[in-house]
Amino acid sequence: MNRNRARVLLLNPALGPLDYRVPQGMTAEPGAIVLAPLGPRQLAGVVWEPERMASDAEVGDNRLRNLVAVYDLPPLKDSLRRLIEWTADYYLAPPAAVLRMALASASALDGGPTIVEYRATGHLPDRLTPQRAQALERIGERQGLVRELATIADVSEGVIRGLCKVGAIEPVTVAVDDPYPEPDPDHDPPDLSAEQQAAAGALADAVLARTFHPVLLDGVTGSGKTEVYFEAIAAALRDGRQTLVLLPEIALTEPFLKRFTARFGVAPVAWHSDLRQSQRRRAWRAIASGEAKVVVGARSALFLPYRELGLIVVDEAHESSFKQEEGVMYHARDVAVMRGHFEQLPVILASATPAIETRHQVEQGRYAELKLPARFGGAQMPDIAALDLVADPPPRGRWLAPKLVEALGETMARGEQALLFLNRRGYAPLTLCRHCGHRFQCPNCTAWMVEHRLTQRLQCHHCGHIMPPPRACPECKEEDALVACGPGVERIADEVTALFPEARTAIVTSDTLWSPARAAEFVGRMEARDIDIVIGTQLVTKGYHFPNLTLVGVVDADLGLSGGDLRAAERSFQQIAQVAGRAGRGDKPGRVLVQTHDPSAPVIHALVSGDVDGFYAAETDSRREAGAPPFGRFAGIIISSENLAETVETARMIGRAAPQVEGMMVFGPAPAPLAMLRGRHRQRLLVHARRALDVQAVIREWLGALEWPRGVRVAVDVDPYSF
Ligand code: ADP
Ligand code: ZN
């Protein structure tokens, strides 16, 4: 290898690796993080073995530019670089885009001059515009750069500076942080049941074995999966190695931190999008140095440069939010398993409702399985019954059937808590004019504008477009003719209040629980029993443990089954089983009422009868017949641009160029599931391939030979979540 020359993958997804000269006295080994010149600028990047990554442009030695500097940071390990290569290859993404996740968009790199952060002073000026007042409320106790506070408050930086001028916000010097305290594996270990003990022992052994070992921790809701994998973390801590815990939802972080702290004495290091720049930098460095022993985070924590990783846990491993739908379209569950492979360590996938793909891996003997078939401490599984909305419908203009209302009344009378689940934010999913039939649609997306009464506006759930609540129909100008169609959680909350005026309700959606602090506050109020009835979306279906919650009502079990996607039944089953799993987790028995128009649907039957294995077997069979995952593979090619004609034309051109390959079929182009999104028209080609076919290689060659107009984006979604 030529030590005077280095191939560098720069942090710019538009660029492939470039070669540089290593000046005298500098060493730039593979993995080193370096600063390199690019045109008039300088950009960070990582040194790569030339034989492992082809360069965009071969340049002779005499024309090379000098590297500027090598960062005083640990080099990226070979195992991580292999993971980056694999991810880029498998998901057909630019390696630099994956590298960016490892380096956290370089935010970790700027040690920079002194950083000035700002926070609220607590001083409220006499006259505050509504926008400024709302910004202050959103910022709360938080501290950060002007840019960060602006993002948190969803206002321009000018608003933050304005608040500074009137004395409502002030600059603060950022203190040098103490090191992260180490979790203590022996702080407060639980007494495990015999079953839990067996599973925990097997996991601890796997940690000490230091070999690749994917394992499904398949335990019913409330069986103590968290307590069990905590023992694996304890084993990794005793072994001096790091653990990564991936959670599907940032709202789950807060309860996790609490439980972790109770077990290990101190909180783990949290990694999520809500971190301030300085916190992010500090966490990144502690992860790279090995100081951060346990890291809990959303999927982006997966690519960080752990110095000595010993264990990966993917909690609620079936969750669809592990699938990234933008940028590098990877599935964090699958990449976690690959990381375990490259780093030779166990990967625990914990779930009460594992994905069909994961079950299949277990059946094939590729993943081990540990089962916890009973709830901890003798708590019973809840009793699940279907409520037939055809036979016993709610009164006109209402959504809760008489039996569910009765059960709510009984629950309240006993001083217990109830949860109503409806996976729809806002008041009503559709607003239309009774007079002319006009429907309010988003100008940027193929989606209805959703009425939100709490914030008094209509909102698009895809691009965030908002409009004030209309008084008159914009088409026919008729006043008082607008009607809200169908229920959202806010409308159910109104119905509950009308039925039980004394009930204390809480709406739990991403609108109300948009930060870890809000989530913590909600948990606190539930635990203090300041809430009687929760009305929530999928955000409340997972993870939470409220012992006094005994009744769960599913407002519309049919909602998830529409759409005709092959995964619909599985997804619907998982969601209802998870929300049902919130009921009766303490010593009081739980009850679940599922409202449906079709009590004989396989999903409902499986939930009511408890024949989960039968349901999975039937679903697996239909996947096998369709050649759907895990038996065959799909890849979506999504073509988008602001111009409809150009989008359609490019999609057709790509479709016509599809190669004839044995075992592969191409469907479409057709409008993508969201035909318009954020102002971009979207067409999709769906590629279906036999399992054994290297479909990525085929697509790479196919698209590589084509050109399309600037402004048209072509993205490949390998293993799409919906098919
Ligand atoms: P799961 O993740 O499987 O739904 P959890 O880990 O949340 O289950 O456990 C459910 C509840 O039971 C939690 O409050 C947990 O602290 C408690 N629990 C589970 N196992 C034990 C144990 N061995 N000792 C004490 N409490 C336990
Ligand atoms: Zn929109």
UniProtKB/TrEMBL annotation:
Family: Belongs to the helicase family. PriA subfamily.
Entry annotated with the keyword Acyltransferase: no
Protein name from the UniProt record: Replication restart protein PriA
Species name: Sphingomonas quercus
Top-level taxon of origin: Bacteria
Keyword ATP-binding: yes
Cofactor remark: Binds 2 zinc ions per subunit.
Enzymatic class: isomerase
Region ranges (Disordered): 176-196
Keywords: ATP-binding, DNA replication, DNA-binding, Helicase, Hydrolase, Isomerase, Metal-binding, Nucleotide-binding, Primosome, Zinc
Catalytic activity: Couples ATP hydrolysis with the unwinding of duplex DNA by translocating in the 3'-5' direction; ATP + H2O = ADP + phosphate + H(+)
Domain Helicase ATP-binding as annotated: residue spans: 206-372
Function as written in the Swiss-Prot or TrEMBL entry: Initiates the restart of stalled replication forks, which reloads the replicative helicase on sites other than the origin of replication. Recognizes and binds to abandoned replication forks and remodels them to uncover a helicase loading site. Promotes assembly of the primosome at these replication forks.
Gene encoding the protein: priA
Cofactor(s) named in the record: Zn(2+)
NCBIfam families: priA, PRK05580.2-2
Pfam families in UniProt: DEAD, PriA_3primeBD, PriA_C, Zn_ribbon_PriA
